[in-house]
């Protein structure tokens, strides 16, 4: 909850207010705005969202980039959340005022929406901005989540990308869009998928496994069905997010172990990634690569039973973008002006 300095001073003196700030009970998140220190002890995205809401009380511009992503409720693991991002009118400049980053080029109404009376960029525009400016994991996790939840249409992402394909970082956005897959159900699944997806072209997500009699055994986070390899992500966060409130965490873990034993008896090899593996992507990739490499060796047998694949939700990005004569001329003029500015600065 946000508190204004004026409101706080009606209940306490300046001295007690400053004392509470020094003790960390209150944290100043924007000019004249404070938040309870406990509110900033949660997930990084939730903490950043509080800061965005505080700055929005003092800033008339549009919340954008990664700050808009957290207001939309999208995960952005590994993102840089040190600055709060807004977009303002203007064609150039990228100003930093305190911890508030002001980007030039305020979007038109087509790319705007509103969340709790705060103007923010639309989901499609936000995702492209994040993909241009943040690490690949943050970008793909956000796109995966938006596609999986039905928050954005793939065609809208293509349109938003084409509107910004000449902006800095567009090559990063292209890569993130191509890597996106709306079947991922959590940021950690996105992390694991990105770590191992290039090991074999037969990689799939969220596929169902059936035994010899056609009975459902379980659903895998991801893996290589033709090679009999499944990878699973373990972690308390996953269990808490996916379990039914009426079922205890211990019951969920036990059900997972029973499911894994049934898959193993069918000939599947299960590789698990635990929370510590998130800081060591190479180790997880090596574990999966070792099992994938063993598939097809003398004596190897494919798993019994059948699988049912889930259709991917991907972004059909045109490659390359087809530029007409007018667009090529516009690009030429743009680079001429940029070159002239660079030469002027060198002089």
What structural class is derived from the secondary structure elements? alpha+beta
Helix content class: 40-55%
Main sheet: strands, sense, barrel: 4 strands, mixed
Number of separate helices: 13
Overall number of strands:
16
Determine the N-to-C terminus distance.
52 Å
* Low confidence ranges: 239-243
What is the N-to-C order of secondary-structure elements (H for helix, E for strand)? EHHEEHEHEEEEEHHHHHEEEEEHHEHEH
Write out the strand line-up for the largest beta sheet, numbering strands in chain order.
Answer: 4-5-7-6
Q: What is the global morphology?
A: globular
User: Strand percentage, roughly?
Assistant: 15-25%
Alpha carbon gyration radius: 24 Å
Total tally of structural domains: 2
Whole-number average pLDDT? Answer: 84
Question: Can you walk through the features of this model?
Answer:
The structure is a single chain. The chain has 347 residues and is an alpha+beta fold. Helix 4 crosses helix 5, helix 5 (123-133) runs antiparallel to helix 6 (136-148) and helix 5 (123-133) crosses helix 8. It is built from 13 helices and 16 strands. The strands form 5 sheets. The protein has a 4-stranded mixed sheet with strand order 4-5-7-6. The protein has a 4-stranded mixed sheet with strand order 10-13-14-15, sandwiched between helices. Residues 239-243 have low confidence and may be disordered. The chain has helices at 5-9, 14-22, 44-56, 65-71, 123-133, 136-148, 154-164, 170-179, 187-196, 236-242, 249-265, 281-294, 325-346; strands at residues 2-4, 26-30, 33-36, 62-63, 84-88, 94-97, 100-104, 112-115, 118-121, 204-205, 208-210, 216-219, 222-224, 229-233, 269-273, 306-308. The protein has 2 domains: 42-180, no CATH class; 187-308, 3-Layer(aba) Sandwich (Endonuclease, Chain A), CATH 3.40.960. 34% of the residues are buried.
């Amino acid at each position: 909850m946000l508190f204004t300095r004026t409101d706080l001073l009606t209940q306490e003196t300046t001295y007690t207010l400053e004392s509470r700030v020094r003790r960390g009970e209150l944290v100043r998140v924007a000019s004249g705005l404070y938040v309870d220190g406990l509110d900033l002890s949660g997930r990084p995205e939730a903490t950043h969202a509080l800061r965005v809401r505080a700055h929005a009380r003092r800033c008339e511009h549009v919340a954008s980039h990664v700050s808009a992503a957290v207001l939309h409720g999208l995960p952005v693991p590994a993102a840089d959340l040190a600055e709060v991002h807004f977009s303002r009118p203007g064609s150039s400049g990228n100003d930093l005022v305190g911890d508030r980053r002001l980007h030039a080029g305020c979007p038109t109404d087509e790319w705007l929406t509103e969340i709790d009376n705060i103007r923010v960029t639309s989901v499609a525009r936000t995702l492209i901005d994040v993909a241009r400016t943040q690490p690949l994991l943050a970008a793909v996790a956000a796109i995966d989540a938006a596609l999986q939840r039905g928050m954005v249409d793939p065609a809208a992402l293509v349109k938003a990308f084409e509107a910004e394909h000449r902006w800095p970082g567009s090559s990063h956005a292209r890569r993130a869009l191509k890597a996106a897959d709306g079947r991922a159900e959590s940021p950690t699944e996105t992390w694991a998928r990105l770590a191992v997806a290039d090991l074999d072209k037969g990689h799939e997500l969220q596929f169902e496994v059936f035994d010899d009699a056609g009975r459902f055994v379980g659903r895998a986070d991801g893996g290589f069905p033709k090679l009999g390899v499944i990878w699973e992500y373990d972690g308390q966060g996953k269990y808490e997010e996916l379990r039914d409130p009426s079922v205890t965490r211990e019951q969920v873990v036990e059900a997972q172990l029973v499911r894994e034993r049934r898959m193993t008896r069918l000939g599947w090899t299960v590789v698990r990634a635990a929370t510590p593996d998130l800081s060591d992507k190479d180790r997880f990739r090596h574990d999966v690569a070792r099992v994938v490499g063993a598939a097809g060796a003398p004596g190897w047998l494919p798993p019994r039973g059948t699988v049912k694949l889930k259709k991917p939700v991907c972004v059909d990005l045109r490659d390359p973008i087809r530029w007409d004569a007018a667009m090529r001329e516009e690009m030429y003029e743009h680079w001429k002006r940029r070159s002239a500015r660079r030469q002027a600065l060198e002089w």
